[in-house]
Structure formats: C-alpha cells, structure tokens
Amino acid sequence: MKRLIVTTIFLIIATVLVTVLYFKNLSPPGVRTGQVMRAIPDNAVAVFEFGNEKGFYDIFAGNQLLSTFVGPGKLHELDTLRKLLIASPQLDQFFTGQNIFVSLHPTNNDNIDLLVTTSASKAFSATMFNHLTGNAKSALQIAPMQIAASQGYNIYVKPLNKHFYLIKTGDNIFSGSFSKDLVDHSAIYQQDKGHNGFVPLPEQQNANSLANLYINYNQLNQFFDQLFLNKTTDLFKSFRMLPAYAALNLNYKSDALMFNGFTTKRNNATSYLNIFSAQQPVENHLKDIFPATTAYSTSFAVSDPKKFETDLSQWHDKAGVGKEKNELLNKVKSEAGLFVKPEFEKLLGNEFAIVTTRYFEKFAIISVKDGSKLFPVMMNISNMVTDKVGQFNYEKLPFFLLGDAFSIFRKPYFMIIDNYLILATSVSELESYNDTYFNRKFIGKTDQYTQFDNLLAERSNVAFFINFKNMQPLLKRDLKRPFYDAFENSDPGWKNYYGAAFQLTASDRNFYTNFCMRLNVPDTSAVKK
C-alpha cells in the first residue's frame, strides 16, 4: 500500500513538472504577445505580426511578396531602420526572438501611416540607445524627448533623411513611427477595460506560424473614407459593415500571400453578414459565370434559403425597416395581386452575387430553382420592355428580398437566363451580360483565374474577389489622387498582383476565414476556347 502511495505521488509530481515545462516552452521568456498588442491603438485597420528572427528575413529575401504588398518605399524604410537599430550589434541580443507588430492607421492628411510595436528583453535599458557604435552611430542621431507622459526619442535616420519617433510605454514595450502624430496618439492611448479588440492567437498556434495578420473590420469604413473620393462606394461594403475582428495565420507560398484563421463577431451586433454565419458551408459555382471583365464581386451562398429569408426578415426588423418592408409588400399584393416574397422564397437557389466590371457595369446574378416558374412572377411586378426584359415597378424590392448588399438596385431591369435571375440598372447592361453568357466569355475560362481559384476554398458563405487589372479604371475614377498615383506608379506594387479574395465560411456561429493575394503570372490572360 505504501509503495502504491509513493508511486502515485511520484506520478503526480512528474505530471506537474511535464505540464510546467510544456507551457514554459509555449511561452518563451520575453515574448509577451498580448501585452504588446494592447499597446497598439484600436484605430488600427490591420496588424501584421512576425518574429524578429533571421529565418523570417531569409525566407522573404529577394521575394517580391512583401514589397509588393507594403510598397517598396515603406519596406525599405522599415528594413533600413531595423538593420541600424534593433539589429545593431549592441541591441540585437535584446530584440532577437521578440515579436514585431506593424499596424496600419488612417490619418487626417490623405496618408496611411505605419506603427511598429515590439518589446525588448528584461535586461534591456533604453539608455543603450545612447551607446550605439559603428554604422548605427554614424547613420542615426538619437535625441531623448518627452512624448506625453512617455519617454520618447527623436531618431534622425541619415540614409533616409527622415525622423523616426519612438516611445517606451512601460515594461520595455516600444512603439515607433515616421509619423509624429501617430506616435503622439500611441503615447496617450489606453485600451478600455473589457474592450474586445485585437485578440492574439493562442501561444502554440502563434509559435508554429511564420506570421499573422489581424484585421479590425470596425475600422474599414474610416480606412475607405481615407482612400476614396466617393464615400458611398460599394467596394467591400458588406465586410465594412461587419463588427468583427479576424486573426489569421500566414501560409507561405512563393507567389501568393495566403492567410487563414477565424473572424469573430462582436456579440449581439446587428450586421447583414451575421445572417450567413447561421448557414452551412456551400460549394461555390456562381463564380463560373462571372464576366471576363469582372473588376470585383461579392458572392453569397446559403445552405437553407428558407432559413435565410426568415433570418433576413428578423434583420430587417432589427435594422428598423420592417414596417417599410411590410408596407411595400402589401402594396405589391394590392396592385399586382401577388404575395411576391413567399413566391420568390420558394424559387430562390443557394447562391447570389453582385458583380462590377471594368466598364462600370453592375450586375446581380441570382441562382433560382426554376427560371421558367420565376419569369411570370417577375412579369407581374414589372413593366416589360421586351418579351424578355422588364423593369421593376417597385423600388427597393431587391433589398427586401435579398438584403443590404442589393440595396444598390433600387428599381432594376431584369432578365432570366436559364436558372439565373439577372438584375442591372440599364437594358444595355443586361444585353452585355447576355452576350457574355451565351458566348461563354467568363473570367473562369482564363488561365490566370484558374490558377488563382485553385488556391481558394471550394466552399464558403460570403466571398469577395478583386481583379487588379480590371479594377484599374474604377480606381482611377474613385481613388484620391495620391493613392491612385501610388497604385499606378509603384513597381512592385498592388498592380503586380493578379487578384485578391476574402472568403468567410460559417463555423460555430462565426466565420472560418481565408485571405489570398496572388502575383501575376506572365502570358496567361488568353481566354480558353
């Protein structure tokens, strides 16, 4: 009996030791991801996290992915500063192995500024900035300064002819930027208690990831207002209206940036996209009939159209438009003798999308179960222009039948092709799509798109796609001039990417998320016959 007790005690002690060692390995000394992230102001649109280790820099050395994404100018500035400061022989030991966070912040001067936040090991003292030698001493002029209540430094970087401002916010956490205004804001920033901001990935997942991307959907509207002349642009509209945060891992590929992880919604937030989190993942096929001229698209997929319509009605009520919807449906019933909503619900398929082309055309493409049965329903609520094309007699029906993303089609023209309902704002646009459909001029027939699509998940519930070449005319019209000039003239830059896709797939009432951007491949733009 005594032997059994001794053996049991020994096993308990061994288990405790193994557990302590395990979690110690998951949380290496000096790496304080959560603490560092709380120092980043919550007006950040996105945060890119990576380990300050030689392996990370070796992987991307000579690779255009990051310079194309961030911009060669900004990347050169950050890399120059890194080599001269935290990678200097005197400081390298205190910063190697720490996580570095580069966050993106909109400003009030038609610019997008970057904030770099990291921590040093406990043995580091900020006074060591004053004792740099070698290249760093000749290339950097470091002057202490007070920034709000924080110890700060004004670092003049001679090779760049620019000032970099740095603050210490406590516990050897440092934040810096070439923007003095951003550093001032960072110095006085304090995260509200209980605020659910950027949430770091679990330590084990973080340790196994090459890099991570955090996205704050709540700041996308402000970010787009910074970029675009037209604040009512529908580009990325549904995502901009989603109160949520994403935490994504980087999956390295030599010609593509690929991230996946989870988008977590804010509790009890009213959002159109929340409706789709209650569905099951659906295999995406509607993209196969998008025009070859597609600039960008937003696609939706539902496993249960009836449940979608029920949830949509609840969303209309929460959004305060339930009364208006009922009044419109009653008007349709009185004038057309038709209960349009239940008739439409019975025939709605699993996918619907909005597509914008390089020629500024805009289509809604809606899969239906039987186009021949839907046609008389549409005729009853429309003024027929030809035997195949009609215009809705009632405004905002697409919004009440399919939701917020379709509010841009207030009183559209329609046609039905096979089992697809097509909406547009003009007859000429419908004729254009009719030509695309019957002559099979689809973007899915191009080699570039096929290679890009092979990187994406087959199933999702909400998906956004952008083709940068086709997007250029729209960006030229809609972007503020400094940002369009950067898009057009930066080499490498975003125009060197073929496209980008963002996919949300319902998972446990939230969304599993895929984000992909792929570089162009030469000579693959021809349409397959």
What secondary-structure arrangement, pairings included, does this model have?
Layout: H1 2-26, H2 33-37, E1 46-51, H3 54-60, H4 64-70, H5 72-84, H6 92-95, E2 99-106, E3 112-119, H7 134-139, E4 140-147, E5 150-157, E6 162-170, E7 173-177, H8 180-188, H9 203-207, E8 211-216, H10 220-227, H11 237-240, E9 244-253, E10 256-265, E11 282-283, E12 294-301, H12 305-318, H13 322-336, H14 340-347, E13 348-357, E14 362-368, H15 371-380, E15 382-384, E16 390-392, H16 397-402, E17 413-417, E18 420-424, H17 427-438, H18 447-453, E19 459-460, E20 462-467, H19 468-478, H20 481-489, E21 497-507, E22 510-519
Antiparallel strand pairs: 1-2, 1-8, 2-3, 3-7, 4-5, 5-6, 6-7, 8-9, 9-10, 10-22, 11-19, 12-13, 12-20, 13-14, 14-18, 15-16, 16-17, 17-18, 20-21, 21-22
Helix pairs in contact: 4-5, 14-15
Specify the biggest β-sheet: 20 strands, antiparallel
Low-confidence stretches: 1-30, 524-529
What Rg is obtained from the alpha carbons, in whole angstroms? Answer: 27 Å
Number of domains: 2
Total strands: 22
* Alpha plus pi helix count: 20
- Beta-strand content estimate: 25-35%
**Arithmetic mean pLDDT:** 87
N-to-C terminal Cα separation, in Å? 82 Å
Describe the global form.
Answer: elongated
Helix content: 25-40%
Secondary-structure content class: alpha+beta
Protein name: DUF3352 domain-containing protein
Organism: Mucilaginibacter gossypii
Task: Explain what you see.
This protein is α+β, with helices and mostly antiparallel strands and 529 residues long. The protein folds into 2 domains: 33-195, no CATH class; 281-490, no CATH class. Helix content is 35%, strand content 28%. It contains 20 helices and 22 strands. It has a 20-stranded antiparallel sheet, with helices on both faces. A two-stranded antiparallel sheet has the order 11-19. Helix 4 (64-70) crosses helix 5 (72-84) and helix 14 (340-347) packs antiparallel against helix 15.
